[in-house]
Amino acid sequence: MELIQQTDDIAAYLAADETIDHGHPLVRETAARLRRDAPDAHAYARAAFEFVRDTITHSIDADDPRVTRRASEVLEQRTGICYAKAHALTALLRADSIPAALCYQNLGVLHGLVALKLPGREHWSRIDPRGNKPGVDAQFSLDRERLAFPVDPESNEEDYPVLYAAPHPAVLAVLEAAPDRETLCNTLPTAL
């Protein structure tokens, strides 16, 4: 699948906003801590991915009722659904000047992913910080996707090729409106 930038302006994939708040002190501190042990951008991107995938629980897996949206909230509360975890990883990557985009799959409901473009690489690579569990094995891989869920076209599932500079409005709307995870799970968007 060919990934399509929503905008040709690469600076948009480095920008901060209310959700991808990589200027927040907690995001900056986390990025600095991860960067200490990473000799280059590739190592940092892997460390940020593994940190989000492995240390921030997926709220459905953990049966955590909290709903997080902003990257700083996700890092502070250490929980979130796929969208929130994607927001946290995007912010950590951008905090280290690595262009990062939000992208989505339709698996019956929308599933959130991250794409990154490392220095010296011509193409974007999608990664999935959702979190592993039995039957789910997402890995950091730039050349061959190792996502949590491969799409099944026979079930009308699809990968959306657009790389968004900011979270999609449909995703933000449900995260902002849901008072708890149960409500959120009942209102997840089914398409973009």
Automatic annotation (TrEMBL):
Location of the Transglutaminase-like domain: 29-128
Pfam families per UniProt: Transglut_core
InterPro entries (UniProt xref): Papain-like_cys_pep_sf (IPR038765), Transglutaminase-like (IPR002931)
Top-rank taxon: Bacteria
Name by which UniProt lists this protein: Transglutaminase family protein
Originating species: Streptomyces qinzhouensis
